[in-house]
Amino acid sequence: MVSIQIDKKSGKPLYVQIRDSIRQAVLDGALSPGDKLPAVSAFAKEVGVTQATIRRAMEDLNAQGLTHCHVGRGTFISEAADIDALGGGPDRIPSVALSEPGRLIRPAQAARQFRQRVSKGLCDLMNVASQPGVIDFSKGVPDPGLLEDGVFEKMVAATMADDTRRYTEYGDLRGMAALRETLAARYEEKGVRISSEQVLITNGAQQGACIVARDAAEKSRQVIIKAPGFQGIVDAFVGNGNWVDTVIGDRGWDVAEQLKRFSGPNSHLLSICPDFHNPVGEDVMAEQRRKIAAWAEKNNGIILSDEVYQDLRFEGKPPKPMINLLGEGRVIVISSLSKPLMPGIRLGWMIGSRRRITEFARIKRLMAQTGPPLMQGVALQYLRSGAYDRHLERVREIYLRRRDTMLSCLEQLMPEGVEWTRPNGGFALWVTLPKGYSSVALLISVLDKGINLVPGPVFDMDQRFVNAFRLSWAWTGRERITEGVEVLADAVKELLRQPPGDSGLSGLGHF
User: Is pTM, for the whole model, over 0.90?
Assistant: First the structure.
């Protein structure tokens, strides 16, 4: 057994320190699948804590699938424990062991683990389907073909000509000062007054989500996520040891009304994507934002505002940002250049109070020391030179035309009873089939016809929204959109000719 070191003077709960130490030991290879952990009484004596503290740490490890308990034998590192399960990349679903003979597991936990397996299978299926020639309505990242030839190369050359030496060193943990100042100035232009000390540069918005998730676990916050939503946010919180609840944010649901069940003095954290919410594509409207803000003020709530699509608005006036409604003390903003510009630049940022940004910088140091200074310099060149704003002006118009083409085709071709959203920006819209019809069955049908889309259950940790799916125009030109929606509409008509049914044993429909 590895030695567990704790710091009783630290503000971090003791059970969290123990849990994280065991998780890190698995990551480092110091503990291997099948290794037995000490009995609770012996473990508590060895570490110098109460047995209750050890049991609390073990509950978390069991819930994550990292350990399992055999009645009468003890607690063991799970055979399925792997690096991805402990905090994989933004596009991965955590891989968790299912129940084994003699293993103690809660029914709700078992159901969630089963659904994660099914969701991972769906993602694998879509990845296989993303082949040349396929009309791909599944993409949630910008079209690389829309980058102007030579501009990125110019930005890199200008960055290197500035001061090569600064890009060979680690750089500032918080990020390049000039970049933070430039971002703060851009937010001020939007009516959000912040200083550069309230900005932390990250390796994409996903790292920002992981930092918030780690902090939430340390502080034992109750985490609430708006569903359907981006699975990477769920992965960040679950992978860092948080138990996640959801509120429904599909069309016609009042999120603020659902939040009433999360009340009291305990700290709550609500994650939302207020602008062009992925996958639905719609804004959280002004009245809903005000109600959410009122809930947060009343119930010690913090809002994680995922604003990665904010710069891709091509119609309509944006509602007031959450940070203006609540202030930096109750709002954490994460954003990046991945959606509006290119995901490969891995340049994101966080905004919050000075105190909170200092705490987040500490967590960031544990994860990655600092971000690549060269890419920060390139991002600065894009922002300062005006190249980024020129790029936005051009791609907004292209994405707008693609969206209009998709909406027009849906209106002309889809049968009665099918509904869809009309986003004012972003990459995608949300289509809802009548109740009793499976988007997974539809996916399998259209894959054979050269069409790819994302079924609704992929966007929910509990695999709801079976009768909905996301359609993206990000990577598909207007002619191909017309061709693809025609094929899709025919498949939907064929599906709807069958009688509606229940969603089957898997929770995903009969297919």
Answer: no
